[in-house]
Design goal:
The chain is an all-alpha fold. It has one domain. The chain has three helices and no strands.
C-alpha cells in the first residue's frame, strides 16, 4: 500500500518537475517529495513495530492521504 502511494506521488512529482522550469517551483517540489518520503517511511516503521491500536494506524493513513490530496490539488491547479 505504502509503496503504491510512493510510486504514485513519485510519478506526479516527476511530471511536475519536467513541466516546471522556475527554480522556486522545483525547490517546492523537492520539499514535497521529502515530506511524502518521510511520512511514508514513518508509517512503514510504525507498521513494522506492529501497532496494537488499529485506530492510531488508521489515523496516520488518513493524515497521509490528506497531505497527499492537498498537495495534489495545489499542484494540479
Amino acid at each position: 500500500m505504502a509503496t503504491r502511494l510512493f510510486i504514485l506521488f513519485k510519478r506526479i512529482i516527476l511530471l511536475k518537475y519536467i513541466k516546471v522550469k522556475e527554480n522556486y517551483s522545483i525547490n517546492i517540489i523537492n520539499y514535497l517529495a521529502l515530506i511524502i518520503l518521510l511520512s511514508l517511511k514513518a508509517s512503514i516503521y510504525l507498521k513494522k513495530i506492529k501497532i496494537t491500536s488499529t485506530i492510531a494506524f488508521k489515523k496516520i493513513v488518513k493524515i497521509l492521504y490528506l497531505i497527499g490530496g492537498i498537495f495534489f490539488i495545489i499542484y494540479k491547479a
